[in-house]
């Protein structure tokens, strides 16, 4: 007991005085230096000690992420990670993996068996040293101090003050908050000068329609078009046009002398600039400064599932982040991915009909204020919603109908772009097979207007 409370005091002292734990450093890393992923791996610190490069231990403590993080905040927020070209790869590596700074290939990451997993590579020249810069940029330079490679020109899901993104640049979301595999969303600075947010197909990376566009493309006069996305050292992000004018994304930023900043494409597709107080207080956290888009639930791409997975229903929370919920009688395909697709607890099928009537086999989940706007298969004009349901019931291929005004829309499956919309006056009926008890997940049941929850708050 005595020794563990001593440990606790020691730990508190360590947390309160970061310099004690940190070896003197000027941020420089010599060729030949290496780090092996263990529970207490050292890291390469910037001169101020604010950024560290090394192995960040994952939730599953046997896995590590080769990354750069904010060292002086308790959360050790990751701002860059080594990501292979193959989108199916999980960038987390196992215990005993090693990163080494080499003259020919720069940073080289190998697994415990010595197989190369990732390298910075792709440059001409010979590395003489690496520098973990105080800006959060890890730079490889040659003997003339020319930059051969830098993490700032290979962003992952986060941009930092002093970082610039040129046309062609891409920031990609991670899979979930704790899974750093490639996610479905992208922030791209297009060659035409527009900054856009879009979802994409995985693993082929085909980009779908944008759900945010900066509007910094002038077809009639390219000098008015965007040229660079700049996150300046004072924490202001803006698009610089070729004619020198700026399109401000950050309206007001807290001073960098007292606040850390980052802009992250969250795993759910919302791009947010955050700040975090540098000075100690009991209640510190990353607070949003601004975010885009205003309402990601309104996203209606022709292809893909929309803001949430297939069949799922998107609702916006106060911080502009989406919640995704499965309809009643549906469950998450992957329990670890709340924003992923929902699957029916029991599949409807044209082979079900034997002696039993459709009424005996199936029923409907009725949803109010829920729309699945795209993916119509047929349009009928029955007298009422009861006949709309009947039409679906007696069509063994029909999984859902929406009755709106005088129209009954049979939907294609799986359902996409589902959203909670307080202004939607239709009724959504989703067919399900009776007599199946769902495992745990009660799903979403919305039958009447629910006070504040909706997309039309802004
Ligand atoms: C950083 O420190 C190392 C030794 O600790 C030294 O060799 C190197 O020249 C220094 N680099 C700079 C840029 O001061
Ligand atoms: C580190 O960043 C500063 C600007 O923030 C820059 O002046 C300096 O050249 C950078 N050092 C290296 C080695 O890139
Ligand atoms: C992360 O997600 C990817 C893609 O879905 C999956 O293959 C991988 O197993 C996940 N990793 C963990 C640690 O769950
Ligand atoms: C393009 O716009 C710039 C101002 O941004 C203006 O000076 C220039 O004359 C325009 N060029 C043409 C061809 O209209
Ligand atoms: C960044 O942009 C802001 C807003 O325009 C400006 O006030 C500030 O001086 C800029 N900082 C730097 C380092 O250029
Ligand atoms: C702590 O921070 C949260 C989020 O920023 C805020 O909502 C809450 O009011 C803060 N509490 C105190 C006691 O400052
Ligand atoms: C497959 C199926 O649902 N069969 C049912 C048909 O209806 C009879 C009587 O209602 C049930 O006993 C069967 O289980």
TrEMBL record:
Pfam families: B_lectin, PAN_2. The keyword Glycoprotein applies. CDD domains: B_lectin, PAN_AP_plant. The keyword Glycoprotein applies. It comes from the Eukaryota. Residues 30-153 form the Bulb-type lectin domain. Residues 1-23 form the signal peptide. SMART domains: B_lectin. Keywords: Disulfide bond, Glycoprotein, Signal. Transmembrane segments: none annotated. PROSITE patterns: BULB_LECTIN. PANTHER family: G-TYPE LECTIN S-RECEPTOR-LIKE SERINE/THREONINE-PROTEIN KINASE SD2-5 (PTHR47976), G-TYPE LECTIN S-RECEPTOR-LIKE SERINE_THREONINE-PROTEIN KINASE RLK1 (PTHR47976:SF15). This is Bulb-type lectin domain-containing protein.
């Amino acid at each position: 007991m005595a020794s563990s409370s001593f440990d606790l005091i020691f730990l508190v002292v360590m947390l309160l005085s970061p310099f004690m734990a940190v070896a003197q450093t000027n941020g420089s890393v010599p060729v030949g230096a290496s780090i092996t992923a263990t529970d207490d791996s050292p890291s390469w610190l910037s001169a101020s000690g604010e950024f560290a490069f090394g192995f960040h231990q994952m939730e599953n403590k046997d896995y590590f992420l080769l990354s750069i993080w904010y060292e002086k905040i308790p959360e050790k927020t990751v701002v860059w990670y080594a990501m292979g070209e193959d989108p199916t790869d999980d960038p987390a590596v196992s215990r005993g993996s090693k990163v080494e700074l080499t003259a020919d290939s720069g940073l080289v990451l190998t697994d415990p068996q010595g197989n190369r997993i990732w390298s910075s590579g792709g440059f001409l020249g010979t590395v003489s040293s690496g520098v973990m810069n105080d800006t959060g940029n890890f730079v490889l330079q040659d003997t003339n101090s020319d930059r051969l490679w830098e993490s700032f020109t290979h962003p992952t899901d986060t941009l930092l003050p002093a970082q610039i993104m040129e046309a062609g640049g891409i920031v990609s979301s991670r899979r979930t908050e704790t899974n750093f595999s490639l996610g479905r969303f992208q922030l791209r600075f297009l060659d035409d000068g527009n900054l856009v947010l879009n979802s994409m197909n995985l693993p082929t990376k085909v980009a779908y329609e944008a759900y945010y566009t900066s509007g910094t493309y002038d077809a009639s006069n390219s000098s008015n078009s965007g040229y660079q996305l700049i996150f300046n050292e004072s924490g202001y992000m803006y698009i610089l046009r070729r004619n020198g004018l700026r399109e401000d994304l950050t309206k007001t930023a807290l001073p960098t002398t007292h606040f850390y900043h980052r802009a992250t494409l969250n795993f759910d597709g919302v791009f947010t600039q955050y700040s975090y107080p540098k000075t100690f207080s009991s209640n510190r956290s990353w607070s949003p400064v601004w975010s885009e888009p205003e309402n990601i639930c309104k996203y209606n791409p022709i292809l893909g599932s929309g803001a949430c997975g297939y069949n799922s229903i998107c609702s916006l929370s106060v911080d502009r982040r989406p919640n995704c919920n499965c309809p009643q009688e549906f469950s998450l395909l992957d329990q670890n991915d709340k924003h992923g697709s929902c699957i029916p607890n029991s599949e409807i099928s044209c082979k079900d009909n034997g002696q039993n009537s459709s009424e005996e086999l199936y029923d409907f989940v009725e949803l109010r204020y829920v729309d699945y706007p795209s993916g119509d298969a047929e349009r009928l004009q029955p007298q009422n919603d009861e006949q709309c349901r009947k039409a679906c019931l007696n069509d063994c291929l029909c999984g859902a109908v929406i009755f709106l005004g005088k129209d009954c829309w049979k939907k294609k499956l799986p359902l996409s772009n589902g959203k909670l919309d307080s202004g939607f006056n239709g009724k959504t009926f989703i067919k399900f097979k009776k007599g199946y008890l769902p495992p745990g997940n009660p799903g979403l049941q919305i039958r009447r207007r629910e006070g504040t929850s909706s997309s039309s708050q802004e």
